[in-house]
Amino acid sequence: MTVRTTLAPAAGMGWATQVTLFIAVLFLVCAWAIDLTPAALANLPRQMATVLSFFYPADLNYGATRVWPALLESIQIAWMGTIIAAMLSLPLALLGARTLFPRIARLVKLISATARAFPEILLAIYFVPIVGLGAFAGALAIGISSVGMLTKLGSEVVESIDMGPVEAVQAAGGSRLLALRYAVVPQVLPEIVAHWLFRFELNIRASAVLGVVGAGGVGGVLLNTLRYRHFEKAAAVLLLTILVVLIIDMVSGAIRRRLLR
Amino acid sequence: MTDKAAIRFQGARVVYPNGAVGLAGVDLDIKPGEFVVVVGSSGAGKSTLLRSVNGLTPLTSGSITVGGQPVPKKEGRELRRLRAGVGMIFQDFRITRRLSVMTNVLVGRVAHVPGWRAMLNLWPAADREIAFRALERVSIADKAWVRAGDLSGGQQQRVGIARALAQEPAIILADEPVASLDPVTTHQIMRDLVRINQELGITTLVNLHFLDLARRYGQRIIGLKAGELVYDGTADSVTQADFKNIYGRDPDAGDLLDESEAS
Amino acid sequence: MNEASRAAPGRPLRPARNWTLIIAAVGAVSLMTWWSARGIGFSLVELACNLPGGRRLLVESWPPDWSFFPRLLGPLLETLQIAVVGTVIGGILAIPIAVLAARNLTPGFLVWFVDRNFMNILRTLPDLFWAMLFAAAVGFGPIAGALALTVFTIAVISKLWSESLEAIDMAVPEAVRAAGGSWLAMLQFGAIPQALPHYVSYALYAFELNVRASMILGLVGAGGIGMVLETQRSTFEYPRVTLIVLSVLVLVLIIEKISESIRRRLV
Question: Quick check: helix, strand or coil at residue B224?
Answer without folding.
Answer: strand
